[in-house]
Structures are given as C-alpha cells and as structure tokens.
Amino acid sequence: MTIGLICALPQELDHLHRVMGEATGSGDVVHHAHTIFQTGTLDGREVVLAGTGMGKVNAALVTTLLIHGFGCRAIVFSGVAGGLDPALSVGDVIVAERVIQHDAGLIDNERLQTYQAGHVPFINPTDRLGYDVDPVLLDKVRAALEGLRLPPLSARAGGHGAAARITYGTVLSGDQYLHSAPTRDRLHAQFGGRAVEMEGGAVAQVAEAFGVDWLVIIRALSDLAGEDSRFEFDQFAGEVAAASCAVLRALLPVL
C-alpha cells in the first residue's frame, strides 16, 4: 500500500527527502500542477512525498492527486498551527481526532454559523460537523506513539526547557491566518479546538470522499494564536523537522 505524506514545512519535506534518498536513492520525481511529488521507500513502505502550499484548495488538490494519480491508500498531513488551547506550548504535537472547517457555513445577520463544509441547512442539511479519524486507526496511532520522546526546543525556537508533548484533540481549519486573541478564545470555546491551521480539513474531506484513511498531525507554532511570537521561525522549523520525521516514521507501520 502506498502512503501519501504531505508536509507544510519545506524543512520537514527536505528532511524526509534526505532520509528517503539515503535508503532508496532519489526515487522518481513527478511535477504536476504546482507540486513536486517524489516516490520512494521509507522504512520498507512505499511513499509519495509532496508539499501542499497554503490553504484548503491547495491541500485538496494535492490530496486528490496523491490518491487518484499515485494510488495512495492512506494520507498523512504534517504541518504547523496556531495554538488555541492555552495548555499548549511551542512545539507540542497535536494528533487530530477530529477536524472542523471553522470558516464554512451560513452568514446570517453578519455572523457566521459554522456548518458542515459542502452543505447548506436548507438545501442539503446534515447534523454532522467535521471529520473524525477512524477509531481503529486512532487506537493504532496512540499505541505507536506511546513512549515516543521528543526533544525540547531551544529558546531561540520558542522552547521552555521541557520536552515537547504528544497530545490529541480537535483541530480547526480555515483559509484565514488567525492573529486575533478574541477570535482565538471564541474558537477554543465554541469548538473545543486545540489548534487552528489552513489545510487539514480539506485533506480529511477529500480522503473521506475517496474512502482512504487520513491523519492530521500538527505542531503548535505559538503558545496562543493571536499573540506575537517571541521566537525565530527558521530556528523553530529546522528543529522540529527531525522530530516531526520521527513521529511520521513511528506511524508508518500502523498505516
């Protein structure tokens, strides 16, 4: 079974390219749309690596090509996100149990009533909101990551001296870069979202449409989305690349 690995950080993608190249050579490289797809073997599993670009449309495009064009039967998206949960620290890992597209819905009286993406209450109503990871797969993920220890980030990368934690919960997706403390607080309270990013919801929607497994694994980019970050992003990205690769490789056997 071929697994599609989508990375948002170029540094993470480069790290996986190097690891895969050391094991199998350069592999085949395919340029399609705006994306470079590299095929090869990682830890004995056939994989295709790709970068998404930003936003849900780009994520949906790349996910569709991985499934329909490369025959991937599982998709893992790994990226970064703004923290909504004040309990999170920079560099913590959140494995999505559920993803919600918080910016989809019905606007009434200048307010957005979030509704399931692709649905309208008076045309194709649904009681569903968001996409849930397959519970059997999620149990395997928990077992695979149990005991995995991640190194602490340096102060320059936003670390506080403690090792990064692996946690689980709801991740929100939307085509908006969040830099607003009131909105951050509302999203956390309204949806129980632990983090917010711009791609995972589309990955889940497309993967479910094709009937393939999916995972969204993200790193908390800042303590709280909406506050100025007091760290160097390049340093953060470089340090989390190797650790994120370790998380992905720990999961390959259960996909």
Brief account:
The chain is α/β, with parallel strands linked by helices and 255 residues long.
- The name of the CATH architecture is 3-Layer(aba) Sandwich
- The run of helices and strands is EHEEEHEEEEEHEHEHEH
| CATH class descriptor name | Alpha Beta
Oligomer: single chain
Outline the low-pLDDT stretches.
none
Terminal Cα separation, in Å? 9 Å
GO molecular function, one term: methylthioadenosine nucleosidase activity
Organism: Mycolicibacterium goodii (Mycobacterium goodii)
GO biological process, one term: nucleoside catabolic process
Pathway: Amino-acid biosynthesis; L-methionine biosynthesis via salvage pathway; S-methyl-5-thio-alpha-D-ribose 1-phosphate from S-methyl-5'-thioadenosine (hydrolase route): step 1/2
Could you explain the architecture of this structure?
Pathway: Amino-acid biosynthesis; L-methionine biosynthesis via salvage pathway; S-methyl-5-thio-alpha-D-ribose 1-phosphate from S-methyl-5'-thioadenosine (hydrolase route): step 1/2. Pfam families: PNP_UDP_1. It comes from Mycolicibacterium goodii. This is adenosylhomocysteine nucleosidase. With 255 residues, this protein is α/β, with parallel strands linked by helices. Helix 2 runs parallel beside helix 5. The longest helix has 19 residues, at 233-251. It starts with a strand and ends with a helix. Strands 5-11-10-6-12 form a five-stranded mixed barrel, surrounded by five helices. Strands 7-8 form a two-stranded antiparallel sheet. It has helices at 10-24, 56-69, 135-145, 181-191, 200-210, 233-251, and strands at 2-7, 29-32, 35-42, 45-51, 72-83, 93-101, 105-108, 111-114, 131-132, 166-173, 193-197, 213-222. It has a single domain (3-254), classed as Rossmann fold, CATH 3.40.50.1580. The mean pLDDT is 90. The protein is built from six helices and twelve strands. Helix 4 (181-191) links the parallel strand 10 and strand 11. The protein is globular and about 55 Å long.
